[in-house]
């Protein structure tokens, strides 16, 4: 039957009959025609200018130059603010302000140039090159506005050419250019290429055009055009525009060019190309049932603008289980049940084997249980068949109940058997404890004898330590006076050395004294004899001091030898004393350890005696208990057997998995071949939920 996977579907809808209002490009290749400022250079008498915006810098430069050359320059401007930054340049021009000014033009002598756009930019600014009559009419209208309608005069000058002020009506007009008093056009309307132009189109019945060349609206009638507030006869503007789009309305099937839809942005980004065909990918749709997947479509086919035919493509997804759904707890219930069931069966088998094989020498009850063993074996063989293919049918439930009875009987007999084993183990334990007590008492007696010996040895060590301490103190007393004599002798030696040095210096003085005397005495022999006698006396004293110094040095040397000998003896005594104290410390540690050991052994014996007493009491209680009490005890033990309940619902098979979330079941299948069985399970067993497909990976 195949796997259940998403189905790809499509549907094509035609929108060719949908009507659309749009601008179609009518642009022809027109040679670019910009105003040449050289026309101003050729001026001989006058230049008049009307500007609704700031004046182009290049143009203003030429006007200033001509004014400086003596040419009369007249400027009519819409606002004083437009010339504030350039006011210094108008010293030789006559400038007036007219706030309702709506046209931009230049008249150079008798030649007029009427511009479509403001004069702040000359490049790509279409203009009409007027003939003599048209220029005359334009000049009359300029004079009327300049003298009659303008307000502030910025620069006071003396114009020579504008001699006569015109008054209404303009009787001198040739009727080639006229004022228009309203803006309700009946002809074709030309608009700037921007979104603000939309506000000008209401219920306009004639042709409407857009152009990048325009910054203000212009209308074209059968025999004239209107720019701002001026009507010009017998002029056509289409041949002056390098870009032009006409507003049309048509069905999609008849549109083949790039267009600018009326309801889109009127800029370069607003152009679109009508597409013949396009595929639109829709969001995937989930089917509520697997069997209904081929019939699922989107509720709405949302159209997309400017496409003639759209093929909608979508995927139909089979129903999937909820994201928060998890494997049904039935799996855990069945797993837990089977595990507990197998544990009970294994436990029962182990008990039977242990009882039939026997433990120790106790086998009193085995002959009584031979028949039950056979019956249990038969039932265990039957249960083995259900381990691989388990169900909740009636026969299994009956066998399961039989298993419970046999398991309980095995458990009861096992309890009886374990009690017998426990009695024997307790007797063995009592015997073991009594032997241990006897061993401990022997060890305690030996330890106590050792303790007595250690205490006796400690008394002897204490006496030796005291004796050695006294000998050490005697040595220290002998060393002290010797150290004192040594220090006393050392202190005398510096004094003797100082005296010797003094005597040596006195010899020099004596020699100097007799040297002076020799200058006055004639008997040199007498002088030498006296000097020698005095020097000999000093030498005798020095000799005596040197002998005394040598004697002291010898004494210090002898004292050092005596002190060193005594200190060696002192070190030996200290070592002997340290050794004795270490022996004493070791004996003390040994004494403490033996004391701890005796205490632990005595405590261990006390515990063992208490344990023996408790074991004997339990033995007596079991022996003295009545048959009824014993059976009641077994009943309590039988409560330890926990038989699991069979789960309420059956688990699905054959590549069908069960999930659930928020109380709902999800039967997950992978293949159409499982759909019938999944629906049967859903409606006959689980009652609520849905059949779902396995998600594609």
Your description of this structure?
The protein is α+β, with helices and mostly antiparallel strands and 697 residues long. Helix 4 packs across helix 6 and helix 6 runs antiparallel to helix 7. Strand 6 and strand 7 form a beta hairpin. It contains 9 helices and 24 strands. 47% of the residues lie in helices and 17% in strands. Strands 9-14-13-12-10-11-15-2-16-17 form a 10-stranded mixed β-sheet. Strands 5-4-3-6-7-8 form a 6-stranded mixed β-sheet, with helices on both faces. It is flat, with a radius of gyration of 68 Å. The two termini are 19 Å apart.
Describe this structure in a few short sentences.
With 697 residues, the chain is α+β, with helices and mostly antiparallel strands. The chain has nine helices and 24 strands. Helix 6 crosses helix 8.
Key structural traits:
697 residues; alpha+beta; six-stranded mixed β-sheet; 9 helices; 24 strands
Secondary-structure blueprint:
Blueprint lengths: L6 E8 L4 E7 L12 H4 L4 E6 L5 H12 L3 E6 L16 E4 L6 E5 L2 E5 L11 E3 L2 H18 L27 E3 L8 E5 L15 E4 L6 E3 L3 E4 L2 E4 L11 E7 L6 E4 L10 E2 L1 E7 L3 E2 L20 E11 L8 E2 L1 H29 L12 H16 L8 H124 L6 H101 L2 H12 L18 E5 L2 E6 L5 H12 L2 E5 L4
């Amino acid at each position: 039957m195949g796997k259940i996977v998403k189905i790809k579907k499509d549907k094509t809808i035609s929108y060719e009959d949908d009507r659309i209002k749009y601008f179609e490009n009518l642009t022809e290749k027109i040679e670019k025609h910009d105003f040449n400022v050289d026309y101003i250079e050729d001026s001989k008498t006058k230049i008049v200018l009307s500007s609704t915006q700031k004046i182009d810098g290049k143009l203003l430069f030429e006007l200033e130059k001509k004014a400086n050359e003596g040419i009369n320059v007249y400027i009519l401007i819409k606002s004083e603010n437009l010339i504030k930054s350039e006011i210094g340049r108008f010293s030789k021009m006559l400038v007036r302000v007219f706030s309702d000014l709506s046209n931009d033009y230049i008249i150079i002598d008798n030649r007029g140039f009427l511009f479509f756009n403001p004069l702040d930019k000359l490049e790509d600014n279409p203009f009409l090159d007027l003939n003599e009559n048209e220029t005359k009419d334009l000049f009359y209208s300029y004079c009327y506005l300049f003298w009659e309608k303008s307000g502030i005069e910025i620069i006071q000058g003396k114009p020579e050419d504008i001699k006569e002020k015109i008054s209404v009506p303009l009787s001198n007009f040739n009727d080639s250019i006229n004022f228009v008093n309203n803006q309700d056009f009946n002809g074709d309307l030309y608009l700037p290429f921007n979104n603000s132009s939309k506000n000008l189109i209401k219920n306009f019945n004639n042709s409407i055009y857009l152009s990048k060349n325009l910054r203000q609206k212009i209308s074209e009638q059968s025999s004239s055009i209107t720019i701002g507030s001026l009507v010009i006869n017998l002029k056509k503007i289409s041949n002056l525009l390098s870009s032009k789009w006409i507003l049309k309305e048509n069905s999609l099937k008849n549109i083949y060019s790039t267009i600018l839809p009326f309801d889109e942005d009127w800029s370069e980004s607003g152009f679109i190309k009508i597409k013949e065909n396009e595929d639109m990918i829709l969001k995937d749709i989930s089917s509520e049932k697997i069997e209904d997947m081929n019939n699922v479509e989107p509720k709405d086919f949302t159209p997309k603008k400017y496409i003639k035919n759209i093929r909608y493509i979508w995927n139909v997804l089979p129903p999937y289980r909820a994201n928060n759904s998890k494997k049904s707890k039935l799996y855990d219930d069945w797993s837990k049940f089977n595990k507990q069931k197998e544990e009970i069966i294994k436990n029962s088998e182990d008990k039977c084997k242990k009882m039939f094989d026997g433990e120790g020498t106790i086998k009193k009850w085995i002959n009584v249980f031979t028949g039950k063993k056979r019956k249990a074996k038969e039932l265990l063989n039957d249960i083995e068949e259900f381990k691989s293919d388990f169900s909740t049918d009636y026969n299994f439930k009956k066998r399961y109940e039989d298993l419970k009875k046999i398991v309980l009987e095995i458990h009861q007999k096992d309890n009886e058997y374990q009690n017998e084993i426990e009695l024997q183990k307790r007797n063995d334990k009592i015997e073991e404890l009594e032997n241990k007590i006897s061993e401990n008492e022997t060890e305690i007696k030996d330890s106590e004898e050792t303790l007595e010996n250690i205490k006796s040895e400690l008394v002897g060590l204490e006496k030796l330590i005291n004796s050695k301490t006294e000998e050490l103190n005697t040595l220290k007393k002998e060393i002290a006076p010797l150290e004192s004599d040594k220090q006393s002798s050392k202190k005398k030696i510096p004094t003797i050395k100082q005296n010797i040095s003094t005597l040596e210096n006195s010899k020099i003085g004596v020699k100097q004294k007799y040297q002076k005397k020799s200058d006055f005495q004639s008997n040199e022999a007498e002088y030498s004899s006296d000097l020698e006698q005095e020097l000999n006396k000093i030498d005798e004293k020095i000799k005596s001091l040197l002998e005394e110094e040598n004697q002291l040095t010898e004494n210090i040397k002898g004292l050092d030898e005596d002190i060193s000998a005594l200190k060696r003896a002192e070190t030996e005594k200290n070592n002997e004393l340290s050794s004795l104290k270490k022996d004493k410390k070791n004996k003390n540690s040994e004494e403490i350890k033996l004391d701890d050991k005796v205490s632990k052994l005595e405590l261990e014996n006390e515990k063992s005696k208490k344990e023996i007493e408790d074991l004997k009491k339990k033995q007596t209680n079991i022996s003295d208990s009545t048959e009824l009490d014993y059976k009641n005890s077994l009943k309590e033990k039988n409560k330890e057997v926990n038989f699991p309940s069979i789960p309420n619902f059956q688990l699905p098979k054959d590549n069908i998995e069960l999930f659930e979330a928020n109380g709902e079941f999800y039967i997950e299948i992978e293949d159409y071949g499982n759909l019938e069985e999944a629906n049967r399970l859903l409606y006959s067993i689980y009652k609520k939920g849905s059949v779902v497909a396995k998600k594609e990976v």
